Amino acid sequence: MAKVGLCEDDPAIRRVVSEGLRLHGHETVVAYDGGEALRRFADDTTLDVLILDIGLPDADGRDVCVALRSSGQVAPVLFLTALGELHERLSGFAAGADDYLAKPFSVAELAMRVEALARRGRVVAPSDPSDLILDPARHAVVCGDNEVLLTPTEFRLLAAVTSRPGEVVRRRAVIAAAWPDGAHVSDNTLDSYATRIRRKLEQIESPLQLRSVRGVGYQLR
Amino acid sequence: MAKVGLCEDDPAIRRVVSEGLRLHGHETVVAYDGGEALRRFADDTTLDVLILDIGLPDADGRDVCVALRSSGQVAPVLFLTALGELHERLSGFAAGADDYLAKPFSVAELAMRVEALARRGRVVAPSDPSDLILDPARHAVVCGDNEVLLTPTEFRLLAAVTSRPGEVVRRRAVIAAAWPDGAHVSDNTLDSYATRIRRKLEQIESPLQLRSVRGVGYQLR
DNA sequence: CGCCGTCGTCAGGTAGTCGTCAGGTTGAGG
DNA sequence: CCTCAACCTGACGACTACCTGACGACGGCG
């Protein structure tokens, strides 16, 4: 039996899922939109699994995932999406997701995946509460009293890296996350954005830097 | 970078998957049927993820999974199946699977799922805190509180030796692992990299050293 | 229309990585 | 002791991934 945090705007799906999971012996905590999810799930350490809809009225589920991660939530995340599109899945994984399910889906399968996730748990150590905070609502990075606004692309890019603190995120994955529509961007464009983000991090005197690992990708240190 | 055990009877899929994973930076060990999978995967503690086809010539992938689990294999399992049938998925999860992918699938998505599993699966704590840890996520060697970044070639080389702790790995095998594209490298190049890696190990005060065994190869002690 | 911010690209420079070499050191065998 | 081969190691040139400042294109907005 697992405790599940569910964020979904469609009342019908919300009901079916929470009822279905209850029948499989799981407890569900519900949120209606991204803001609600942040308030209810960010600090709840008793949650075993999070289920997030990608298309929410007030935010993108991936941003919600990133925000939850940066506020210390370590439970594994499963994304729901109406689209079966590949790039959605890839950028979801890049945002730090652990699993993915396309609508329409069977509640029985969802329950199975939830159990698999709860069983496995999540390794990534809850990184020390680094004082770098990504605010998806305002597209800003905050460090202590300083803050800078990021452009949408900059935000997605930085989010992809911060979602795995300390780890090296491959260039390919960063591009998938920052350009979720699968647009072709020159390799150099990524470099450019890295420079812009670095300048902004410097501006707020962030102790964490966006380091590049030659031949592999980027890393937050 | 993860080490993946793949069991699949279709040669075409086998090739596409192992080649595709290689392009994403993963190493693949292949088995053709269930028996082969048991022999090769049951005791291999270096595997990060297992990919099993459900429909094998000599056995059901789910049975293979159960058998591997009962012989102590703890790596997360992803099932492949030709059918998108729901009951296949459910019984797969029941057999102890961690993920599932229906054919036809995108290799990019498979790679993403493999990475998600490998990330989660690395739960196994470093048995000895004084041990040397090769961390694929950060492309680094860690020893206690010290860590050094490795270049891609250094990482592959060291990984080849650490994957068989204590054993002597032949020079030919090390070269094959560190230069997977089959490039011709002078014998001296290997010596060179050994020196570079030694310096880095020394830098983090590792108790383990990269020793050379004259006329045979290298060994970690 | 003109202004402004974001976007993607480019060109030039920098520095890390790569593979090789040359000269020194070590070890085995006669 | 000498010889030879295997190995170590510091250095070097070539390559290229990456950095960075600048620019034109485009869309939103007054």
Automatic annotation (TrEMBL), chains A, B:
DNA-binding region, residue intervals: 121-221
Residues modified as 4-aspartylphosphate: D53
Gene3D superfamilies reported for this sequence: 3.40.50.2300, 6.10.250.690, Winged helix-like DNA-binding domain superfamily/Winged helix DNA-binding domain
InterPro entries from the UniProt entry: CheY-like_superfamily (IPR011006), OmpR/PhoB-type_DNA-bd (IPR001867), Sig_transdc_resp-reg_C-effctor (IPR016032), Sig_transdc_resp-reg_receiver (IPR001789), WalR-like (IPR039420), WH-like_DNA-bd_sf (IPR036388)
Domain OmpR/PhoB-type, residue spans: 121-221
Residue stretches making up the Response regulatory domain: 3-118
Keyword tags: DNA-binding, Phosphoprotein
Pfam hit, one: Trans_reg_C
Name of this protein: Response regulator transcription factor
